[in-house]
Amino acid sequence: MFNKSDRAGTIKLHSTFYGPKYLFFSSTAPSSTTITFFNVTTGKGKKLALGSKTNCMTGSKVLIVDDDSDDVEILAEAFTQTGVESVHFVHSAMQAFIYLQSIENKEHLPKLIVTDLYLPGITGAEFLKDLKDMEKYKQIYVVVLSSHKSDKEIGKYKQMGVQEYLVKPSSYDEYVEVARTIAAKLDA
C-alpha cells in the first residue's frame, strides 16, 4: 500500500487490479475515492472521482451495465417491482469495474450483474472475460441481456462463465417477467 500525506490528509493507494489491457488504481483521500484507469496498450490514463466512498461501500444486490438509459431505467424499475431492494446501474464496463472495485467487503458485492454486450470503450465481451478472470468476481451470477442472439454467441459466453444469455424484452411486462425469473434464481 502506498501512503502520501499532505495538508488535506493521507492519500492511500489501496488496491490495484489488471485486465489484459487495463490497469486500475484506486486511491482514497479523506472525502473521496479516485480511480485511475490506465490503458497499457495506448499508454493513456484517465482519473475518475467517485465522490464519497461511503456511498459505494455496501454495494447493491443487482448491477446493471448498459449504455442505453431507457433500457437501464426500465430494467431497474422491473427489478424494484419484483422486490429487489438494491439496484445499481452504470453505463460502461469501465464504470462497472470502478463500482466493483470500490466495494471493499466481498459480502457486499452484487449477487447479479446484468450486462449488454455492446458497450462504449471496453466491450461487453472484454468486460466479461476480465470479470471472470478475477477471483474476487468469479462467483457473481452474470446474465447477458442483448438485442442480438445466436447459438454461436450463446456458447461463447457460456464458456466465459455467463449463467444466462437473454434477448432484451420488447415491453415493460416482459422486462418484469425477466427480472422476476432472474431474481427467483438468486433467491433459490
Spell out the key features of this protein.
188 residues, alpha/beta, Rossmann fold, 2 domains, five-stranded antiparallel beta sheet, five-stranded parallel beta sheet, 10 strands, disordered N terminus
Count of DSSP strands = 10
CATH fold type of the largest domain: Rossmann fold
CATH architecture of the largest domain: 3-Layer(aba) Sandwich
Pick out the low-confidence regions: 1-35, 47-59
- The rough form would be described as globular
Question: What level of helicity do the residues show?
Answer: 25-40%
Structural class: alpha/beta
CATH class of the largest domain: Alpha Beta
Q: How many helical stretches? A: 5
Q: Which band does the percent of strand residues land in? A: 25-35%
How is the main sheet built? 5 strands, antiparallel
Listing every helix as H and every strand as E from the N terminus to the C terminus, the arrangement reads EEEEEEHEHEHEHEH
The neighbouring-strand order within the major sheet is 1-2-3-4-5
Fourth CATH level, the homologous superfamily of the largest domain? Response regulator
Rg of Cα set: 17 Å
Our count of domains comes out at 2
Distance between the termini: 39 Å
User: What is the averaged pLDDT score?
Assistant: 75
In words, what does this structure look like?
With 188 residues, the protein is an alpha/beta fold. The chain has two domains: 1-54, no CATH class; 56-187, Rossmann fold (3-Layer(aba) Sandwich). The chain contains five helices and ten strands. Strands 1-2-3-4-5 form a five-stranded antiparallel β-sheet, covered by helices on one side. The chain has a five-stranded parallel β-sheet with strand order 7-6-8-9-10, sandwiched between helices. The radius of gyration is 17 Å and the shape is globular. Mean pLDDT is 75; it is low at 1-35 and 47-59.
